[in-house]
Amino acid sequence: MFKKSFLGGKNEERVIEKIKKHIKILYTACETFKSALEKQDIEKMLTVSDLEREGDIVRREVLSNIYEGAFLPFIRPNICKFVEIMDNVLDELKNAAQVYDMGLKLDKDIRTDCIEIAHLNLNMCEMLSITFEALCEGQDLREKMLVIRIYEKKVDEMKLDLVKKLMGREIKTFWEGKVLSDFISYLSNISDIIEDASDYLQILNISIR
């Protein structure tokens, strides 16, 4: 019953494979961002925008296949919403990478915390991929979603600590402060959006049973 209502036929399988490709691009973008931040490698950081464009192409293909008739009508909106949210994660990652390229200076203490957040974002992407595979296999998603929520809570705590650290530091110009604030906001928002994406997997899981 599960496979009949969710996987259906070849059109559905094609969409599922493209969604898996979209998640893989997102994982690669998060991994690239973390590595570039660790090595302070601007050239590598700029490739995050290329991955965002690649993800956008896959998103359009998925939506096009769905509008052509893949999946039962009551499932389509939730799948479209899931894919759009994943694309929002790529947008936020690209924004963080572009701000970093604006000459952002991070002292050692702040950079260490930002790398840890990037690491947690990467772990969340991996868990989102595992959760999607579990959905396709008709498995229970609750434990995997709990792990994603634990990661998100950890990022929230780290963002609060980062803000407290920054409040005690001298900022020389308005734009220096704005760029730093934007970078931390983009970086920490990624975990919120991934959690939203996992919520839609649970909605899908309930709706197809």
TrEMBL record:
Protein name per its UniProtKB record: Protein containing DUF47
Domain of life according to the entry: Bacteria
Signal peptide from the UniProt entry: none
Family membership noted in the UniProt record: Belongs to the UPF0111 family.
PANTHER family: UPF0111 PROTEIN HI_1603
Name of a matching Pfam family: PhoU_div
